[in-house]
Amino acid sequence: MRTPAPVPAAPTVDTPWPVSVLAEKLHQYIARLGQVWVEGEVTQWQRRATAIYGKLRDINGEATISVTVWLSRRAPVPDDISQGDRVIALVKPDYWMKGGTLSMVATEVRHAGLGELLEKLQRLRTQLAAEGLFDAGRKKRLPFLPHRIGLITGADSDAEKDVLRNATLRWPQVQFRTIHTAVQGDRVPQEVSAAIRVLDADPDVDVIIVARGGGDFLHLIGFSDELVLRTAADASTPIVSAIGHENDHPLLDDVADLRAS
Questions:
Q1: Per-domain residue ranges for the chain?
Q2: Cβ contacts of residue 30 below 8 Å, gap of 6+?
Q3: Distance between CA atoms of 67 and 92, rounded to whole angstroms?
Q4: Dihedral angle sign, alpha carbons of residues 21, 23, 28, 30
Q5: 147-183 confidence digits (pLDDT tens)
Q6: For position 139, what pLDDT does the model report?
Q7: What is the CATH number of domain 19-114?
Q8: Could you tell me the end-to-end alpha-carbon distance of the chain, in angstroms, rounded to an integer?
Q9: 124-131+145-259 has which CATH code?
Q10: Is 246 exposed, middle or buried (0-12, 13-18, 19+ CB in 10 A)?
Q11: In angstroms, what is the C-alpha Rg of the chain?
Q12: I need a labelling partner for 13 at 20 to 30 A (CA). Which of 92, 97, 109, 253 fits?
């Protein structure tokens, strides 16, 4: 068996390293590097059969890194990450010798600022509880046979169809006044609050239902906004919060007169 030629310790123009030697040394060096948390803006995010391939750009500069999330490792990654999002990722450098590329393998990805957001919500919850907005004694009784229901929901949504179907089965003669609003994103607080005020001012509306299907925590965050909560608390018409599934719990559930998942 032929013995491979020894690799010179110090390559020169006369005794250069083979590419494989340099690649192996790079691979070994990079493999020794540990994990690190990085923050950046998502400029690319593509989910494939076995992995998610993305790129993160520095928030204040042009530096960019490639990120790979192997789905087989069941890494905790939110389903709603998309281009333009600001995220924090736990990454480990990985050098692919055959392709000669350096990438970062992410084992966890989070929306940036989520911890601060949770703290803010907890402070708001504490404040509103201290003001008595969650007290059982302030809950209004729902009408036994509502004549007209005010419905606030997304246009052509499954939530709208579910409410219409279930209410009609229970009260065949019931009528609806429906206002379509944003149910995700920055417009939710203003639009939902305005819709509550409009329906609350309608003397023919006996009860108001705010409905949305399930979703990620950030999808539902608008229904924990202080403007929505105080508008709901000030309404004289009973309000039903039908947001998300059983495990979802926006703060509107606590302010509303009834929660219906």
A1: 19-114, 124-131+145-259
A2: 93, 94, 95, 102
A3: 9
A4: positive
A5: 999 999 999 999 999 999 999 999 999 999 999 999 9
A6: 96
A7: 2.40.50.140
A8: 72
A9: 3.40.50.261
A10: exposed
A11: 27
A12: 97
